[in-house]
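Entry 14. Ran structure prediction on the chain below.
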Amino acid sequence: MAFRILILCLILFIIEIYAFQAVKTITKVAWIKTIYLIISISVIVFIGYQFTKFDRSVGQTKMTMITLGLLLLFFIPKFLISIVLLFEDIYRLFLGTSNYFSNYSKDATFFPQRRKFVSQIALGLAAIPFASLIYGMTFGKYNYKVIKQQVFFPDLPDAFDGFTITQISDIHSGSFDNPDKINYAIDLVNEQNSDLILFTGDIVNTHAKEMHPWIDNFNRIKKHKYGKFSVLGNHDYGEYVTWPSQKAKDENFEAIKNLYGQIDFKLLLNEHTFITKGDDKIALVGVENWGNNFKKAGDINKASANLTQDDFKILMSHDPSHWEYEVKNHEKNFHLTLSGHTHGMQFGIEIPGYFKWSLAQYVYKQWAGLYENKGRYVYVNRGFGFHAYPGRVGIMPEITVIELKKGKYTV
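Output, structure tokens:
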């Protein structure tokens, strides 16, 4: 552990050296360089101090989120600067070596000076993530998007043709700091007038008390004709802090499960229920969290006991890796799975209908939007809230409206 910290500090030191080289190259004004050094050293000291103050018995706080946001804001732009200047150093080394062996100029220095325009390019590139991260922390985290998606099934019961479902996921109430923005998002949820609303887990970051200031806000979600249902997410189990006792952890878990009822959502714990419309019905299946790299409390076989392959089934499972590893080829044929969890890493590039990219795609095969396998689908919601980094860049908070349609499979 100590060795890894040492390596990390060495990398950050090298990044700092390169960033300062860029500043030195574009300006000879002493006071500008001095102010840069003062700010850099102050931020480094602050971040280092806050990391030493982190308490695993408390977990994430507003200050830890600010610290992580500042860390990203401070080092990602400098990392880009370092990459550009590193390539320039490789060029300078190549040029110096070539000149040395060709005796191009006996008076020339082996290592040519840095070129001002290269440092200007580096700083210009660094300004892009710097501005983006600031936007993400000030506006992006509450820039809610309503995304509508039709999904076609040839075996959808006739009465459910055109049935609409609003999905929210990953509230992470412990991260919120603006009641007006949360009320705005809940107004958006209500405006969809869907038949059914489903919440696919992570009501808090860790502690049940995080949700207490927001219960009245979320009770503003109106009753839906066919109900309000939910499942648990990985953060709902309190796995990421050190508890004083197992009893305290268990009490927190029970309190978190009760929170769902306090905002009028029926929590499905490895069980199913039926949604009936006219003479037809569909099965709504809810499992506890099952993640490839997280808690595996979900039991899909228990949740779907007594259901047949022919029953039309919608599965709520927080982590989309569950679909990849257990659900998509399951013998009982789960028609549509609704997940969340990834947040799209809260950072990426997305041009709806054309292009989407995020670091999340290197961790999860299904990380945002609709995916299909042999006529079975999973929809991954990008998340309602935010966690760790206190913002969103490119991957905005989402309210999903899914319309079930009878017909040929969605392409």
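The longest helix spans residues 62-102. Will compare against last week's run tomorrow.
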